[in-house]
Design goal:
The complex is a heterodimer of chains A (108) and B (114). Chain A has 108 residues and is mostly beta strands. Chain A has strands spanning 4-7, 10-14, 19-25, 29-37, 43-49, 52-56, 59-64, 69-74, 83-91, 96-98, 102-107. In chain B, 0% of the residues lie in helices and 48% in strands. Chain B is built from no helices and 11 strands. Chain B has strands at residues 4-7, 10-13, 19-25, 31-37, 44-51, 54-57, 64-66, 76-78, 87-94, 104-105, 109-113. The N and C termini of chain B lie far apart (36 Å). Classes of the chains: A mainly beta (108), B mainly beta (114). The A-B interface holds A 2, 4, 30-31, 33, 35, 40-45, 48, 50, 86, 88, 90, 94-101 and B 35, 40-45, 88, 90, 92, 97-98, 100, 102-108, 110.
């Protein structure tokens, strides 16, 4: 079993829909990261959080430390949001562990 | 603009040849990392360096080598000993390995070995 599990693996949405991507982890962490990988391959850091909730534009990330769970929400989704979304955790000792990613496709 | 540059974007090699992937950053970051990405799997750490002239093996270092002669540069050599070298390789950096500063990634190099 992977230490970081994401769901769903693939997600297709219609433009304008509210999207949720989930991440569960099984180890103690000091931080959780949400990353976005576009078709060209480059990766951008969206959020780094250790508690509560963060918001940036149409993106919202939440984390529940007790339940070892985080969600990434996209409001009013747009085709340009189509990408792979990756959850990663910083374990104690600073090791980064990555989930396999969620492939999101938003259709117009 | 500050960032990480990986080159080339696509690389093709024959089996048995060593190949070196370039990674340069102008972010003045101390820590640099090499990851390998395979379809359906999370990124896996090959090597990392926290300071010039020092580097450590990651989870899948066999068949790879690195150097860190300058703060800005962290090249990765894929040797002929790597059994399955075809993959997407990502270089990353951050401002110190001891804290939770965000990672900055390059755009990756896709290596195909035939």
């Amino acid at each position: 079993k992977n230490e970081v599990e994401q769901s769903p693996q693939n997600l297709t949405a219609q433009e304008g829909e509210f999207i949720t991507i989930n991440c569960s982890y099984s180890v103690g962490i000091s931080a959780l990261h949400w990353l976005q990988q576009h078709p060209g391959g480059g990766i951008v850091s969206l959020f780094m959080l250790s508690s509560g909730k963060k918001k940036h534009g149409r993106l919202i990330a939440t984390i529940n430390i007790q339940e070892k769970h985080s969600s990434l929400h996209i409001t009013a989704s747009h085709p340009r949001d189509s990408a792979v979304y990756i959850c990663a955790v910083t374990e104690y000792g600073n090791k980064l562990v990555f989930g396999a990613g969620t492939i999101l496709r938003v259709k117009s | 603009d500050g960032g990480i540059t990986q080159s080339p974007k696509y690389l093709f090699r024959k089996e048995g040849q060593n190949v070196t992937l370039s990674c340069e950053q102008n972010l003045n970051h101390d820590a640099m990392y090499w990851y390998r990405q395979d379809p359906g799997q999370g990124l896996r750490l090959i090597y990392y360096s926290q300071i010039v002239n020092d580097f450590q093996k990651g989870d899948i270092a066999e068949g790879y080598s690195v150097s860190r002669e300058k703060k800005e540069s962290f090249p990765l050599t894929v040797t002929s000993a790597q059994k399955n070298p075809t993959a997407f390789y990502l270089c990353a950096s951050r401002n110190g390995d001891g804290d939770n500063s965000p990672l900055h990634f390059g755009n990756g190099t896709r290596l195909t070995v035939t």
